[in-house]
Write a structure and sequence with these properties.
Layout: H1 2-15, H2 23-40, H3 51-66, H4 72-93
Helix pairs in contact: 2-4, 3-4
């Protein structure tokens, strides 16, 4: 519940221009959308994120799955999104 409220206030703050939109803000909000969808057992789209964000978010997802807060399918969904992002980055780099 707390994270839902934090996301709601973050969205309002961003919409009102109090936080300038940048890569980090977009990354955090995308991860919040993923967590919300994963908690419902739904799929969520992940945009391309900075590599260091993927690593951190991966650790968070693993901890949430281990704690029983997310279904194990959330880890699979995250890993799939990460793999697709890596493939897009590799294709772009060549």
């Amino acid at each position: 519940m707390r994270s839902a409220l934090e996301r709601h206030f973050s969205d309002i703050t961003l919409a009102k221009g109090r936080i300038p939109p940048d890569e980090t803000v977009a990354s955090v909000l995308a991860f919040c959308v993923f967590l919300k969808a994963a908690a419902r057992g739904s799929l969520a789209f992940f945009p391309d994120l900075p590599m260091e964000h993927w690593a951190f978010y991966g650790k968070v997802v693993r901890k949430l799955v281990a704690a029983g807060e997310l279904q194990s399918g959330a880890q699979d969904q995250f890993d799939t999104a990460f793999s697709k992002s890596l493939l897009r980055l590799a294709a772009f780099a060549t």
